[in-house]
Amino acid sequence: MELVWNNVKAVLEERLPGHSFRMWIEPVKFENRSGDAFRLSCPNAFSKKRVQDHYGSMIQDEIRTLLGSDISLCFDVRKGTNGASRGPVVKKGLKKVETQLVIPNVANPVMHSGRMLRPDFTLDDFVVSGNNDFAYSAALSLASSTQSHNSSLFLLSDTGMGKSHLTQAIGHHINRKKPGERVYYITAEDFTNEMIGSFKNDTAGQFKDKYRSQCDVLLLEDVHFLGGKERTQIELAMTLDYLMESGKKIMFSSCYLPNDIPKMNEQLASRFTSGLISPIEDPNFRTRVRILKKKAAQKGHRLPMDVIEYLAGELTDNIRQLESGLVSVSAKSSLMGVPLDLDLAESVVKNIATKKKRVTIDVIKKLVCREFNITPVDIVSKSRKKTIVKPRQVAIYLSRRYTDQPLQAIGKNFNRYHATVMHAVGTIEKDIRQEVQMRNQIEYLSRKIENGDF
Ligand SMILES: Nc1ncnc2c1ncn2[C@@H]1O[C@H](COP(=O)(O)OP(=O)(O)OP(=O)(O)O)[C@@H](O)[C@H]1O
């Protein structure tokens, strides 16, 4: 049954925005199945509620599809995890300023300041090819550099292309080669939460000191998150000045070039670009084949070459999608006791490709307009009429749930600030919990999106 859960996770990873998956679904573990009860556990009560309310029906549907029978889904709070998971830390981070963040489902993680480095995100496990060899060399050269200036690197790529893998691999590499160096691995969201928390708790001095004087290598991910966060931008710019002036090493990652991040102040953007900027491009077919072979070998999956080549030919969106295909074919083959062949791979690919490819904010807008009988002009207008506001909030909520777009991009699409997007998402989440009608409407629309029926 654990395989079922792994397979469901692979599907959700494909379907949910990366940050939502990592924050909420990744820490969930399979516990047991007894009768029709399928039991999962979350690291604490907060994440249990969130996963149950927000993703429960999606998880249930996937398990039902895989098993071909109805189940009743139960969530528990895992014993002994003590709430130290990523999910709730983001919300409760205001109080937990100096705590270590833990990725709960990773075996033998290495302790660091900030987040844990995933043990499988190493240089050995990173396939170097034409699409990323410049980024790889630049990262390695930064890691080994003894230069006292210009020691920063900005990794740029679409989602799922290996930024986190390469960044964390550099963290491992430095830890192994230079154990004395203090490596901080965090996301821009962590930095923001920690800063806000420190101001609230009167520990701003400690916070500043920690990043300015106690860090030798700063690995800062997802810097596009900082768009619109003026106070954090100013603080980070000052921190970077301290680090750069004292020749510390800094790696940034983002899906956007600094100057393309909405509401990013010029001072910070110029610090991001003061060193090397290195894109990671789409991998070509041969590289996708190499990655699949490597991942299959690591996970102990035996895939025939024609299946590998078929997956590599079809799953071209990003490497995360490729991995999802690999996990799905292996899980389906062993669960259903069928050979791991091209027929099986075709059924898996059909599922992944239709679910992912065509869902864009535009598609969601059109679907919502049609279902609520409003016009595409209404949905982006300034109108405060309830008959317009609700569908707009629904469309924003669905865009957040089904696309990888950041808040700013969603806001732009609806002529709104990202704070309005957050408000809309929160409102609909609350409505789903409290109103049967809204729950049904969202389920209906979600099903349409998931089935490509729009
Ligand atoms: N060159 C590579 N070799 C092996 N695995 C890779 C490579 N590039 C990416 N992957 C794998 O693809 C998956 C997604 O990579 P990663 O999380 O690093 O993407 P990302 O660019 O940081 O995405 P996001 O912007 O959504 O955070 C990971 O499991 C990673 O191991």
TrEMBL record:
It is found in: Cytoplasm. PROSITE patterns: DNAA (PS01008). ATP binds at G160, G162, K163, S164. Residues 334-454 are annotated as: Domain IV, binds dsDNA. Domain I is involved in oligomerization and binding regulators, domain II is flexibile and of varying length in different bacteria, domain III forms the AAA+ region, while domain IV binds dsDNA. Plays an essential role in the initiation and regulation of chromosomal replication. ATP-DnaA binds to the origin of replication (oriC) to initiate formation of the DNA replication initiation complex once per cell cycle. Binds the DnaA box (a 9 base pair repeat at the origin) and separates the double-stranded (ds)DNA. Forms a right-handed helical filament on oriC DNA; dsDNA binds to the exterior of the filament while single-stranded (ss)DNA is stabiized in the filament's interior. This is Chromosomal replication initiator protein DnaA. It comes from Desulfoluna limicola.
